[in-house]
Design brief:
The chain is 41% helix and 19% strand. It is an alpha+beta fold. It has 2 domains: 67 residues; 57 residues, 434 Repressor (Amino-terminal Domain) (Orthogonal Bundle). Helix 3 crosses helix 4. The radius of gyration is 16 Å and the shape is elongated. It starts with a strand and ends in a 15-residue tail after the last helix.
Length: 143
Protein backbone atom coordinates (compact mmCIF):
# COMPACT_ATOMS: atom_id res chain seq x y z
CA UNK A 1 0.00 0.00 0.00
CA UNK A 2 1.29 3.40 -0.95
CA UNK A 3 0.21 6.87 0.09
CA UNK A 4 0.08 9.72 -2.40
CA UNK A 5 1.79 13.03 -1.75
CA UNK A 6 1.76 16.38 -3.51
CA UNK A 7 4.34 19.09 -4.05
CA UNK A 8 2.83 22.54 -4.40
CA UNK A 9 4.51 25.23 -6.48
CA UNK A 10 6.34 27.97 -4.66
CA UNK A 11 4.14 30.98 -4.11
CA UNK A 12 5.41 34.35 -5.19
CA UNK A 13 8.11 35.56 -2.82
CA UNK A 14 8.48 32.18 -1.06
CA UNK A 15 11.68 30.14 -1.01
CA UNK A 16 10.15 26.72 -0.48
CA UNK A 17 7.63 24.34 -2.03
CA UNK A 18 5.00 23.07 0.39
CA UNK A 19 4.62 19.31 0.50
CA UNK A 20 1.78 17.21 1.87
CA UNK A 21 0.56 13.70 2.37
CA UNK A 22 -2.85 14.61 3.73
CA UNK A 23 -3.94 11.05 4.59
CA UNK A 24 -0.97 10.78 6.95
CA UNK A 25 -1.09 14.34 8.26
CA UNK A 26 2.36 15.13 6.88
CA UNK A 27 3.10 18.71 5.87
CA UNK A 28 6.62 19.97 5.22
CA UNK A 29 8.65 22.12 2.85
CA UNK A 30 11.56 21.73 0.47
CA UNK A 31 13.70 23.88 -1.81
CA UNK A 32 13.22 21.60 -4.83
CA UNK A 33 11.55 18.23 -5.52
CA UNK A 34 14.61 16.24 -4.38
CA UNK A 35 14.69 18.20 -1.12
CA UNK A 36 10.92 17.72 -0.72
CA UNK A 37 11.35 13.93 -0.99
CA UNK A 38 14.13 14.04 1.60
CA UNK A 39 11.97 16.06 4.01
CA UNK A 40 8.95 13.73 3.60
CA UNK A 41 11.12 10.66 4.16
CA UNK A 42 12.64 12.19 7.29
CA UNK A 43 9.26 13.34 8.64
CA UNK A 44 7.65 9.91 8.29
CA UNK A 45 10.63 8.04 9.67
CA UNK A 46 10.61 10.36 12.70
CA UNK A 47 6.86 9.88 13.15
CA UNK A 48 7.23 6.09 13.19
CA UNK A 49 10.47 6.14 15.19
CA UNK A 50 11.20 2.40 14.93
CA UNK A 51 14.61 0.89 14.40
CA UNK A 52 14.91 -0.47 10.87
CA UNK A 53 11.84 1.35 9.55
CA UNK A 54 12.42 3.25 6.33
CA UNK A 55 10.42 5.15 3.76
CA UNK A 56 10.82 4.94 0.01
CA UNK A 57 9.68 7.97 -1.98
CA UNK A 58 8.52 7.17 -5.51
CA UNK A 59 8.28 10.22 -7.83
CA UNK A 60 5.32 10.11 -10.24
CA UNK A 61 5.51 13.58 -11.75
CA UNK A 62 6.84 17.02 -10.86
CA UNK A 63 3.97 17.50 -8.43
CA UNK A 64 3.02 13.99 -7.27
CA UNK A 65 4.81 11.16 -5.53
CA UNK A 66 4.04 8.06 -3.50
CA UNK A 67 5.54 6.83 -0.25
CA UNK A 68 5.98 3.24 0.79
CA UNK A 69 7.16 2.00 4.17
CA UNK A 70 9.38 -0.98 4.90
CA UNK A 71 6.55 -2.06 7.25
CA UNK A 72 2.93 -1.22 6.47
CA UNK A 73 1.55 -1.40 10.03
CA UNK A 74 2.94 1.94 11.24
CA UNK A 75 1.68 3.80 8.16
CA UNK A 76 -1.82 2.33 8.50
CA UNK A 77 -1.71 3.24 12.21
CA UNK A 78 -0.83 6.86 11.33
CA UNK A 79 -3.60 6.89 8.70
CA UNK A 80 -6.18 5.66 11.24
CA UNK A 81 -5.04 8.14 13.90
CA UNK A 82 -5.20 11.02 11.42
CA UNK A 83 -8.57 9.95 9.99
CA UNK A 84 -10.06 9.61 13.48
CA UNK A 85 -8.68 13.02 14.52
CA UNK A 86 -10.11 14.66 11.38
CA UNK A 87 -13.43 12.97 12.19
CA UNK A 88 -13.39 14.49 15.69
CA UNK A 89 -13.83 11.14 17.43
CA UNK A 90 -12.28 9.53 20.49
CA UNK A 91 -11.11 5.92 20.63
CA UNK A 92 -14.12 5.13 22.80
CA UNK A 93 -16.53 6.61 20.22
CA UNK A 94 -14.97 4.52 17.43
CA UNK A 95 -15.17 1.41 19.62
CA UNK A 96 -18.89 2.01 20.22
CA UNK A 97 -19.59 2.70 16.53
CA UNK A 98 -17.86 -0.57 15.64
CA UNK A 99 -19.90 -2.43 18.29
CA UNK A 100 -16.79 -3.75 20.04
CA UNK A 101 -16.80 -4.79 23.69
CA UNK A 102 -13.31 -3.48 24.35
CA UNK A 103 -11.46 -0.37 23.22
CA UNK A 104 -8.41 -2.59 22.65
CA UNK A 105 -10.14 -4.30 19.73
CA UNK A 106 -9.66 -1.14 17.70
CA UNK A 107 -6.75 0.56 19.49
CA UNK A 108 -4.34 -2.23 18.52
CA UNK A 109 -4.54 -0.98 14.93
CA UNK A 110 -3.75 2.63 15.86
CA UNK A 111 -0.81 1.34 17.92
CA UNK A 112 0.57 -0.61 14.93
CA UNK A 113 0.27 -3.88 16.85
CA UNK A 114 -1.89 -5.39 14.12
CA UNK A 115 -2.60 -4.76 10.45
CA UNK A 116 -6.30 -4.82 9.52
CA UNK A 117 -7.56 -6.73 6.50
CA UNK A 118 -8.93 -4.51 3.74
CA UNK A 119 -12.57 -5.18 4.66
CA UNK A 120 -11.79 -4.32 8.31
CA UNK A 121 -10.00 -1.13 7.30
CA UNK A 122 -13.09 -0.17 5.31
CA UNK A 123 -15.24 -0.89 8.39
CA UNK A 124 -13.07 1.51 10.41
CA UNK A 125 -13.39 4.27 7.82
CA UNK A 126 -17.17 3.79 7.62
CA UNK A 127 -17.52 3.82 11.42
CA UNK A 128 -15.72 7.15 11.61
CA UNK A 129 -17.19 8.79 8.50
CA UNK A 130 -20.08 6.85 6.91
CA UNK A 131 -20.01 9.10 3.83
CA UNK A 132 -16.41 8.09 3.02
CA UNK A 133 -15.21 5.11 1.01
CA UNK A 134 -11.79 3.60 0.58
CA UNK A 135 -10.70 3.76 -3.04
CA UNK A 136 -8.32 1.19 -4.37
CA UNK A 137 -6.30 2.51 -7.26
CA UNK A 138 -3.33 1.04 -9.05
CA UNK A 139 -0.54 3.17 -10.42
CA UNK A 140 2.29 2.27 -12.64
CA UNK A 141 5.60 3.42 -11.24
CA UNK A 142 7.73 5.74 -13.29
CA UNK A 143 11.13 4.15 -13.77
Amino acid sequence: MLFEGKIHAKKKGEKFHSVEISELGVFTEGKNPKDCYKMVKEALELMVDEKGFSIEVIPLSETKFMVKGSDLKPLVAIFLQEFRAKSGLTLRQVQKRLGLKSINGYAQYEQAKALPAMNRLNDFVKAMRPEFDLIIKTKKRLT
